[in-house]
Specification:
There is one protein chain. This protein is an alpha/beta fold and 168 residues long. The protein has a domain of 104 residues: Nitrogenase molybdenum iron protein domain (Rossmann fold), CATH 3.40.50. It is 48% helix and 17% strand. It has 8 helices and 7 strands. The protein has a 5-stranded parallel β-sheet with strand order 5-4-3-6-7. The N and C termini lie far apart (57 Å).
Length: 168
């Protein structure tokens, strides 16, 4: 009888521990509002980001968050090439290469024809170039990479700094 009670209590403890892990995973996520007002769950502290649009690579580099994967466009820009030398340089259509990087999330444009494929790899943020402006997009990248001090020094307009402070 004591063995049955011991096994039963052990089973309850194990199941309770498994349930806690799931809730911990949920608390490690945050909602990110995309340009089309849909929300996507992404990690709070991302470490492995793939950036599939060349315009957005520079913002992450500026905030000292080098993406793990970038498009081969960086080879055309000496500054970006140097800043992303530790990143995997690939064709934006190379789904297999993106998968191998095991990203926390992926950043692409609304126009990306491979969106349906890459969203299966990892949460995928789509930025709509027609709705976003550079400063607003840069603020979003700040919120993802959490580099407030670096962003504030990068923004020249005091009003933009004030708005950013209000966001935090």
């Amino acid at each position: 009888m004591k063995k049955v009670i011991f096994i039963f209590i052990s089973l309850i403890i194990i199941l309770a521990g498994c349930g806690k892990q799931d809730s911990d995973k949920e608390s490690d996520l945050k909602a990110f509002k995309q340009d089309d007002n849909t929300e996507i769950k992404i990690p709070k502290n991302p470490k492995r980001i793939v950036v599939l649009h060349p315009t957005y690579i520079g913002a992450f580099v500026k905030f000292r968050h080098t993406p793990v994967g970038v498009t081969n466009y960086v080879n055309q820009n000496k500054t970006l090439k140097e800043a992303t030398k530790s990143s995997k340089v690939m064709n934006a259509n190379d789904i297999e290469a993106i998968t191998k990087l095991k990203p926390d999330f992926i950043i692409t444009t609304k126009e990306d024809k491979n969106y349906k494929k890459i969203e299966k790899i990892s949460p995928t943020i789509q930025i709509d170039a027609m709705k976003s402006n550079y400063k607003e997009t840069t603020k979003k990248w700040h919120l993802l990479s959490m580099r407030t001090r670096k962003l504030k020094s990068g923004l020249k307009n005091g009003k933009e700094r004030l708005k950013l402070t209000a966001l935090n």
